[in-house]
Amino acid sequence: MMEEVKERTPPAETYLLWSIINLLCCCFPLGVVAVIYSIRVENAVSVGDMSRAVEASQTAKILNIVGVVTGALALMLIFVMYAVVITRLNQ
């Protein structure tokens, strides 16, 4: 009976690819922490600790969302600052 429940329960999402892309493209510090939590998901699933895997998966997801938003805001800020500098130089 317990084996059937384990088979039906999907493993927790690792978000490892998203974490690596976040690490390389968006926000390096949050990307590093997200990669660490993504690896924790894999480790927890391998030992069968699904509650810890789900918790680490949720943390990795939140870190990736915050990293993408932070990276996007930083990029927009850079573009605005660049536009302001170019405009002032052309006057």
TrEMBL record:
It is found in: Membrane. The keyword Transcription does not apply. The chain crosses the membrane at residues 15-41, 62-85. Its main location: membrane. Keywords: Membrane, Transmembrane, Transmembrane helix. Belongs to the CD225/Dispanin family. This is Proline-rich transmembrane protein 1-like. The lineage of its organism: Eukaryota, Metazoa, Chordata, Craniata, Vertebrata.
